[in-house]
Amino acid sequence: MSAAPLSRADLPSEPADANALVTEVWPSRADRDEHGVLRLGGIEATALRDRFGTPLYVLDEDEVRAQARRALAAFRAAAEAHGADARVYYAGKAFLSTEVVRWVTEEGLAVDVCTGGELAVALAAGADPSRLGFHGNNKSVAELERAVEVGVGSIVIDSLIELERLAAIVERRDATQAVLVRVNSGVHAETHDFLATAHEDQKFGFALEDAAAAVARIREIDGLVFVGLHCHIGSQIFGTAGFRESAARVVDLHAQLLAGGDVPVLNLGGGFGIAYREGDDPTPIEELASGIADAVARECAVRGIPVPNLAFEPGRAIVGRAGVTLYEVGTTKPVRVDETLTRLYVSVDGGMSDNARPALYGAQFSARLASRTSDAAPALVRVVGKHCESGDIVVDAEYLPGDVAPGDLLAVPATGAYCVSLSSNYNHVPRPPVVALRGGEARVIVRRETVDDLLARDAGLDATSTEGIRMPVLSERSESK
User: Fold this and answer.
1) Looking at the chain, which residues constitute the CATH 2.40.37.10 domain(s)?
2) Which is the catalytic residue, given 114, 300, 388, 419?
3) 300 is catalytic
4) In sequence order, what are the beta bridge partners of 272?
5) Run means of pLDDT, 10 residues per run, the chain, 481 residues
6) Domain 61-319 is classified in which CATH homologous superfamily?
7) Architecture of 8-55+323-415+432-466 per CATH?
8) Residue 347 near residue 332 (C-beta atoms within 8 A)
9) How far apart are the first and last CA of the chain?
10) Main-chain dihedrals φ then ψ at residue 48, nearest 5 degrees
């Protein structure tokens, strides 16, 4: 993969102060101390580096909890305004660990999982199975068996094959399982093609015209209880226009299905965007909630039907802003782009293995020096990783103080969602740890991977043959200090 040519139209504006923290992008408690060092949750970034090493995922627990409470309050209030209830599921695919499951469930959220592995994490954290929703376009028989066995609250049916698999399982177990049917509303959210998941030519769910037959089949099966429709239109969405149009189409199907029995729930998914850079303008969750609920209520009123109970699945909106990734600068290199423009390449000790979103989606992030401030003039930089790919870009275009140098600590905000989840061992790079902050304290909630971990999976080696092989990783520091 090669880096895209520079488009001047896509360049961020040169800031008056390349040290300033954009409020909407960073965790709410992020600031700088009297020496210019970035503080996260009241702890200096340099102290986190010295204790835990780099690269390092940092997650503000208080921020996660606050966003969970805010989302729950917003959606409940929006639904109650129309005489309905609302359930909010945390979308585990954004980032899942046992600690995060405990945080969000303690704040009143249910949890959405989409694989057997995610289900296992939620159960290991002590989540109530009846408050779990199980997604996925290709759930295996074993995954469905496990979901029914533990009493998962609802399973979202994604295909006729899956429906019949589940029917066989509940019959064999003499069990009862609540299910929803995922539908494609045909609304293409204003987002990247790979992130939009409700237009017809994609792998998820049933077309609207095919969904009624699937529901009819579910209603024939004694062990399955149809509880409603599910529709998710995409990710990182700003505004309510897409949700309103999708709601109109799905409510029309909902009204038709009422002729055959109850349809108590309408799940409209998630995909609510956050700010990654200055200038991003995500819609406040309260405005999204009321706009979507109002749209559903209007469509129900037109058809003379009651407003169903609503469900939503925010993930990024809960954990995205709470996360910051810390890197150490290794090298810098000025690269002449054209006759009038030079860009400084800043290489850090992580990259696409800990943040795949720029390579996958062309996602844009921002960055700031974390170990100091500087009066140097802002310089156009591209922050890149250590992998053998020219597309290994962490921050495509940013302005940092022009004296950024090897050894500096760099912070990339808004990495709480889909960075840990999408991380890999490309080039056999161990994955970073996740450190949670709360009350001025830091603790590891996902430990750092080591080269020994990587070698332990290599079936060509036995335990004795790896002695003395492990190479030191200079950025690693003791996590027990």
Assistant:
1) 8-55+323-415+432-466
2) 388
3) no
4) 237
5) 53 89 95 97 98 98 98 98 97 98 98 98 98 96 98 96 97 98 75 50 81 96 96 67 77 93 92 89 92 92 96 95 98 90 95 96 95 96 96 96 98 98 97 97 98 94 64 50 40
6) Alanine racemase (3.20.20.10)
7) Beta Barrel (2.40)
8) yes
9) 40
10) -65, -45
